[in-house]
Amino acid sequence: MELPFSLQTYAERLGRIRKRMAEQGLDALLLSMPDCVNWLTGASSVGYLWPQALIIDSSDREPLMVTRTTEGPGLFITSWLREPLLYDIAQKNPVDAIAEGIRLRGLDKARIGIEMDGFTNLISTFQGLQERLPDVSWVDASLLVPEERLIKTQAEIAYQRQAAEMADYAMEKVVEAVRPGISETELAGIASAALGEAGSEYAAIPPMVVSGERSVMVHALASRRTISRGDVVCVELAGVVHRYHAVLMRTIVVGKPSARVREVADCLKRATEAAIAAAVPGAPAPAPDAACNAVLAELDLVKNRCHRIGYSLGVAYPPGWLEPMTLVEGDPHVLAPNMSFTIEPNLHLPEEGFGMKLGDTVLCTPNGSESLSRLGHDIYVVE
Fold this sequence. Notes:
19% strand, six-stranded mixed β-sheet, Creatine Amidinohydrolase, Chain A, domain 1, Creatine Amidinohydrolase
């Protein structure tokens, strides 16, 4: 087995989930999201692209993993599970296999929690389960496992710290490589190579590089656009250790920045640092956002915010890396020690032809907050 944590750790996690199940009146829980399955079992694969399920009941039995025969060898290597129900996708409908697993556990008339919001829970899969198991009461339990993951252990934080070091290394390599004539795709490739050199696993989102007029696009992947002198270049990447992510965002200017770019960059730096400073234990989740906006308002830049300021971060798989806590107005969470999350008050100014990214992975500590990156918050200037 290639487990990142002890068997005792997984047993404790499973116990906490079963306690949550009991509190919510659930007889069982059916999980398909890869981050949740990994957190509870260690199982790691891209096999979640096809229907599969981890069935957890209230007994002390090993959870039942229903997955393709293709995933069997990997399951035995990466997880502590030893009694999966494997199906041949060429011969059996995946929904039939999952329904069979539920019946094998005597849960065909049970109250079962399911991830209604999970991208792995296809409408066709859920409808198929409803048809095959008409006496099951299905309950939305999308957040049951993710909520349990918000406060990290010291071992989890250690992995995120390693991931942050890898992200810093890759960002520095990108900055070194920026020059007129290089393309966005080349820079994204350099970021990927540097992450690999540092030991990072593949991130849930690949490195993003946008430049010039494209710098206003927060979630665009790199294009073949060639970078020119005067361009603003935004880079976002993440280091990953045992699927624990640390996200990093920085902005680079090729040549001498204009006075306006300098002014906006300085304001964004101060806003970011104010947000980090506000992320203290006991603060409501929106507190960093309010602190950020108070600074951005000095230049009337709040209207140029194009992204929520942050969200909880931990185990993740493609296509995304968000946990349920978001640092926005209306989120009911209260910050607590050992929560980790991003702070990223990105800006777009399309009428002025540029945007800026600035973001760290931040840890709430007993004494305040701490960025996991050692890099400063100034823009990089490449002459």
